[in-house]
């Protein structure tokens, strides 16, 4: 059985849906701080618990003694907020994750798939980024995730923990069947915010910075469909079940798109014109993050199936269904 921590959130719920489709046994553990109860099907075991509460964790592993693997999505994940409120990030992303690891070991659960991030690399010195690229994060969020990679490595040496750290680039897109999608409150991510303009919910998208060292001056990111991420998690679980080993893998498309590229693609897919306001840079944003996923392909046989147009199209269908259209 797989315990999915943070399984009511954006990436977690898409992964839960995929795992269920594969016929796997799953239990979801989530405190619903940023997740949504309705994102987890009602027939799936759901524990409303908080990582900060050791009793909640103990209860999870005691109630479901056949858990052999954990997939850990639960964290705070806003780069800008982490600069303003680092304490909140170190508490939830590091300290509470240590509670999770300790509880796993108490209950003899040794396998974990961990949500890491390209934010652990900081400013890239080579592009695309491979896994051995220096990890020098430039914001507290990225530092929390790098610390957890290092802590898991220490736990592996000392206690026999096996981990796969999946360093996602920018997760985006929605369920192909449009049942679930991206829904963060407040929303800070680029694509849903542009779609808010497309449906008339907001007037314009602010473009954070126009003098980055990139061809059009705006930030470049590598957008990866959430369904592709779900598939990678499933493969990572299989890897851990047969290998007593650790992996650190990038998950990206290997293609970079600037903020202006994304706005243009949204205009093409939706047929709506998007107003933009050139604004100040956001603290903690590196200019360019593009990942090489060659290692994930070699080891897990994983490669992304969905491209930017699929990402924007599925996001658009979900966004219209969930948030409606007034324009
Ligand atoms: N969204 C991205 O582009 C992206 C990129 C790289 C890495 N990540 C990482 O992927 C993971 C999932 O991201 P997401 O966008 O789905 O976020 P999300 O906020 O939608 O999901 C996180 C889930 O964890 C739960 N949670 C948080 N703290 C908890 C706690 N203490 N106890 C129990 N549950 C708790 C929340 O309620 C939520 O359901 C995060 O770890 C994030 O850092 C995300
Ligand atoms: O209103 C906005 C929102 C975003 N952006 C820009 O769009 C790009 C993408 O921003 P997102 O907020 O959508 O995503 P991030 O790149 O900041 O963050 C994502 O990737 C990070 C890794 O860099 C983390 O893992 C994080 O969890 C995940 O949300 C950035 O250049 C950002 O400056 C804007 O111009 N205007």
UniProtKB/TrEMBL annotation:
Assembly information from the UniProt record = Homodimer.
Domain called NAD-dependent epimerase/dehydratase: residue spans: 2-239
Q: Does the keyword Iron apply?
A: no
| Keywords in alphabetical order | Carbohydrate metabolism, Galactose metabolism, Isomerase, NAD
Q: What is this protein called?
A: UDP-glucose 4-epimerase
Q: Which Pfam families match?
A: Epimerase
Its EC number is 5.1.3.2
**Transmembrane regions:** none
* Pathway assigned to this chain's UniProt record: Carbohydrate metabolism; galactose metabolism
What NCBIfam families would the database entry show?
galE
What does the similarity note say?
Belongs to the NAD(P)-dependent epimerase/dehydratase family.
Q: Which reaction does it catalyse?
A: UDP-alpha-D-glucose = UDP-alpha-D-galactose
At the top level, the lineage of the source is Bacteria
Cofactor(s) required, per the database record: NAD(+)
Molecular function GO terms recorded: UDP-glucose 4-epimerase activity
């Amino acid at each position: 059985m797989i315990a999915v921590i943070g399984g009511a959130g954006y990436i977690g719920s898409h992964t839960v849906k995929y795992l269920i489709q594969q016929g796997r046994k799953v239990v979801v553990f989530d405190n619903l701080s940023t997740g949504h109860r309705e994102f987890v099907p009602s027939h799936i075991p759901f524990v409303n618990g908080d990582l900060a509460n050791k009793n909640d964790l103990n209860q999870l592993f005691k109630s479901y003694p056949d858990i052999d693997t954990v997939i850990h999505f639960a964290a705070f994940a806003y780069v800008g907020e982490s600069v303003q409120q680092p304490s909140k990030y170190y508490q939830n992303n590091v300290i509470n994750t240590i509670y999770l690891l300790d509880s796993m070991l108490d209950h003899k659960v040794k396998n974990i798939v961990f949500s890491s991030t390209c934010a652990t690399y900081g400013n890239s010195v080579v592009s695309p980024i491979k896994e051995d690229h220096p990890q020098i994060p430039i914001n507290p969020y990225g530092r929390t995730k790098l610390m957890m990679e290092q802590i898991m490595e220490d736990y592996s040496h000392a206690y026999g923990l096996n981990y796969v750290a999946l360093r996602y680039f920018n997760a985006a897109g929605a369920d192909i069947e449009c049942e679930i999608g991206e829904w963060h409150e407040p929303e800070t991510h680029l694509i849903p915010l542009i779609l808010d303009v497309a449906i008339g919910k907001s007037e314009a998208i602010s473009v954070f910075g126009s003098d980055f060292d990139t061809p059009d001056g705006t930030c470049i990111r590598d957008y990866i469909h959430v369904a592709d991420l779900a598939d990678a998690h499933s493969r990572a679980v299989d890897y851990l079940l047969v290998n007593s080993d650790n992996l650190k893998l990038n998950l990206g498309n290997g293609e970079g798109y600037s903020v202006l590229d994304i706005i243009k693609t949204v205009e093409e897919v939706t047929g709506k014109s998007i107003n933009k306001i050139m604004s100040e840079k956001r603290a903690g944003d590196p200019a360019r993050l593009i990942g090489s996923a060659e290692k994930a392909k070699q080891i897990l046989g994983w490669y992304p199936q969905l491209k930017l147009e699929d990402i924007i199209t599925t996001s658009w269908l979900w966004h219209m269904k969930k948030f409606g259209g007034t324009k």
